[in-house]
């Protein structure tokens, strides 16, 4: 019989499983409700189900029920635009939609059969679950280079990733996780909801992020927090003058940041105020988690740690040769392989073949590796590797240097064509107060790094364009 995704639902412990605000379910209740819905889904034999992924307990129940039933689920961002929604529905062809009761669905989804997720159910045997290679979730990429692609994640990718994180983070059933992440993405849904449930632990979803809620949770029951850099930036801005927040964060067993690089400046402000070093990890929709700083390992700010158990990683240069040196300086593209990888891009064999080569996934992310095997992401191959004056320069290193200047609140770095240098370095700055002079910022970077890494152009903005996960949309800057 295949392994169960959530063993605690088959033998429920007497403890809380999910809490969203004032609404909570213990393991027996979750097993009864999700089990009832799973049996109903089995009787309907849908090919796939779309999940209207609001940040609610209903979304969590819907996804758990689909996994119990062995029906692939397609989480849909509730803020999605019409064109993108049309593409996702046409591409994934769901048989029905799961949503919280009373949710207003856009016309494209409202035209499909709908199952409202009520928080009622009766105990019964849970369905036998399918094998490891069966598709579990289809998560759509952000579509920065064309229409979003449907990443088909098999059950083994989810289970092996969550079990590798159990090892890396010493994650146990005693942990209580707090977060406020969206539930249509790998970070918030797979790590933030399915992770605690696989461990037999507890998750408290805060709804909307606020430092007050985080402080309250970590000062009472919560032992872990997951967040994205925009959240940790708000914490870093506030924690030095907020003793209650600093004390609560200091009590946490683990603070984890992901989905984008956390600036070293924010790392240090949080450490100074709390004594805690935030753990960073590295993953993608196609690979789930690849590397992480270990809970019992050295925490090096700005690195994403070492490969997780079962994951192989390597750096490859532009010629396709594997980079053997681990000097912390040589930049290469990260390739990974292991049981954490996706199966395919739905209906896109061409795109799948382009990124999966001899079992290795070409991530498009550029990084260095130090003597201890720690990886440091310097940016995306397409947008963050700048070739200037014969040098290959990672945008992330310059961004971290700019953030050390007191006049810089936020920074993004891109390259643009230059007739002499090939590409010139452009800094996009959100100032903290009166904007500093561009030459002052260029000199600051040259002093901290080296002259060839200084920005040649500085542009000031009121805010950087970001997506729902807090990543800076650099193509929007270039446009």
Automatic annotation (TrEMBL):
Coiled coil: none annotated. Its EC number is 6.2.1.-. GO terms for molecular function: medium-chain fatty acid-CoA ligase activity. The keyword Ligase applies. PROSITE patterns: AMP_BINDING. The keyword Ligase applies. It comes from the Bacteria. Residues 397-471 form the AMP-binding enzyme C-terminal domain. Keywords: Ligase. It holds the Pfam family AMP-binding. Residues 10-346 form the AMP-dependent synthetase/ligase domain. InterPro entries: AMP-bd_C, AMP-bd_C_sf, AMP-binding_CS, AMP-dep_synth/lig_dom, ANL_N_sf. GO terms for biological process: fatty acid metabolic process. Belongs to the ATP-dependent AMP-binding enzyme family. PANTHER family: ACYL-COA SYNTHETASE, ACYL-COA SYNTHETASE FAMILY MEMBER 3. This is Malonyl-CoA/methylmalonyl-CoA synthetase. It comes from Amycolatopsis endophytica.
């Amino acid at each position: 019989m295949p392994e169960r995704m959530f063993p605690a639902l088959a033998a429920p412990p007497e403890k809380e499983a999910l809490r969203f605000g004032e609404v909570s379910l213990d393991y027996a209740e979750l097993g009864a409700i999700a089990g009832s819905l799973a049996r109903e889904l089995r009787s309907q034999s849908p090919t796939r189900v779309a999940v209207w992924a609001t940040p609610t307990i209903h979304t969590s129940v819907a996804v758990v029920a689909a996994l119990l039933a062995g029906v692939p689920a397609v989480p849909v961002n509730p803020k999605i635009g019409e064109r993108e929604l049309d593409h996702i529905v046409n591409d994934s062809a769901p048989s029905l939609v799961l949503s919280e009761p009373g949710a207003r669905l856009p016309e494209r989804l409202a035209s499909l059969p709908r199952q409202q997720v009520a928080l009622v159910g009766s105990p019964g045997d849970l369905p036998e679950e399918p094998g490891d290679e069966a598709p579990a979730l289809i998560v759509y990429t952000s579509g920065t280079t064309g229409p979003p692609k449907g990443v088909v994640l098999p059950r083994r990718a989810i289970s092996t990733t969550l079990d590798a994180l159990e090892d890396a983070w010493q994650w146990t059933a005693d942990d209580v996780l707090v977060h406020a992440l969206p539930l249509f993405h790998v970070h918030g849904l797979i790590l933030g909801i399915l992770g605690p449930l696989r461990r037999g632990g507890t998750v408290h979803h805060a709804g909307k992020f606020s430092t007050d809620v985080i402080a309250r949770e970590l000062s009472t029951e919560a032992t872990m927090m997951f967040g994205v850099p925009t959240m940790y930036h708000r914490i870093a801005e506030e924690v030095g003058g907020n003793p209650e927040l600093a004390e609560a964060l200091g009590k946490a067993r683990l603070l984890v940041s992901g989905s984008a690089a956390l600036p070293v400046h924010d790392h240090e402000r949080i450490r100074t105020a709390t004594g805690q070093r935030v753990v960073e990890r590295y993953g993608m929709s196609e690979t789930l988690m690849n590397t992480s700083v270990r809970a019992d390992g050295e925490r090096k700010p700005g690195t994403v740690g070492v490969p997780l158990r079962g994951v192989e990683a390597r750096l490859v240069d532009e010629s396709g040769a594997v980079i053997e040196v681990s000097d912390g300086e040589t930049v290469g593209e990260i390739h990974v392989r292991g049981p954490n990888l996706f199966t395919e891009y739905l209906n896109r064999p061409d795109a799948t073949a382009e990124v999966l080569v001899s079992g290795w996934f070409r991530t498009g992310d550029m990084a260095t590796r130090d003597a201890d095997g720690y990886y440091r992401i310097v940016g995306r191959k397409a947008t963050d590797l700048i070739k200037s004056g014969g040098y290959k320069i990672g945008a992330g290193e310059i961004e971290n240097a700019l953030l050390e200047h007191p006049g810089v609140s936020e920074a993004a770095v891109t390259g643009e064509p230059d007739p002499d240098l090939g590409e010139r370095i452009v800094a996009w700055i959100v100032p903290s107060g009166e904007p500093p002079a561009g030459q002052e910022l260029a000199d600051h970077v040259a002093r901290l790094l080296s002259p060839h890494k200084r920005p040649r152009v500085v542009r000031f903005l009121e805010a950087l364009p970001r997506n729902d996960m807090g990543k800076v949309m650099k193509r929007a800057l270039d446009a």
